[in-house]
Amino acid sequence: MVSNVKAILFDMDGVLLDSERVWRKYEKETFSAVGIEELPENLKKKIYGISMKDEFALLKGTIKLNVTYEEYVSNYDKFSRRVYSESALAANLENVLQTLKNKGLKLAIVSASLQPWIELALKRLQKSDYFDLAISLADTPGLRQKPEPDGYLRAMEILCATPKETLVIEDSNRGLKSGRASGAVTIATSEFIDSAVYKQEGYDEKIEKLEDLLEYLPD
What is 7-17+90-216's CATH superfamily? Predict the structure, then answer.
């Protein structure tokens, strides 16, 4: 159990909803549209949890890409509405969020995804006011991408919470490293992780499902 919590900061993809898996469903079609007929397995692992800009830079440095970054993002945008409408939400997500709000906690999203994608995900919720803040690292100038802690530190600043008063909930190792670097207690959720394929590391605590987070908080 963690005491004196004032704010909880969530990654979005793979934490609040199973969008990573659905993106993979459209992976071949998405990459084919920018001239990549088959993405090597080693690159598939490397792009997990990274920002769009980092993904583009990585692929452009290893595979011949004949599109600009803007065209690359535009191609992803074509699939985003399908992805975020089909993605399964974390179990009992709205009950979890409402319970946290009832405890007087400040909630925020800190995501590498584009701001319009965050808005698509939020539209899946019945209420629009669960989160006090949503930061897109991709669309916020001056913030370095995960594993740097910039996004989480900015959220704490806006919410007037110290690292010791903050929990960070992440799934990818880049995100977990970002949370730890911010000084916050960092919790790994494996609800949408295939543990046989992806080993989470560098966290303070681990939960199987997002709803298990409630067990870490005082009544």
Answer: HAD superfamily/HAD-like (3.40.50.1000)
Buried/exposed code over 127-154 (b: 16+ C-beta within 10 A; e: otherwise): eeebbeebbbbbeeeebebbbbbbbbbb
Mean pLDDT, rounded, for 97-120: 96
Sign of the CA dihedral with 192 first, then 209, 85, and 103 last: negative
Q: Answer yes or no: are the C-beta atoms of 163 and 178 closer than 8 Å.
A: no
For 27-38, the pLDDT digits (tens) are: 889 989 998 888
Where do we find the tokens 């709803």? 211
What is the distance between the alpha carbons of residues 172 and 14, in angstroms, rounded to a whole number?
Answer: 8
Give the predicted TM-score (pTM) of the model.
Answer: 0.90
Residue with tokens 């993605």: 87
pLDDT in tens, 45-92: 788 767 788 889 888 888 878 899 999 999 999 999 999 999 999 999
Helix or strand (DSSP H, E) at 8: strand 7-10
Instruction: Select from 57, 77, 79, 67 the least CA-distant residue to 35.
Output: 67
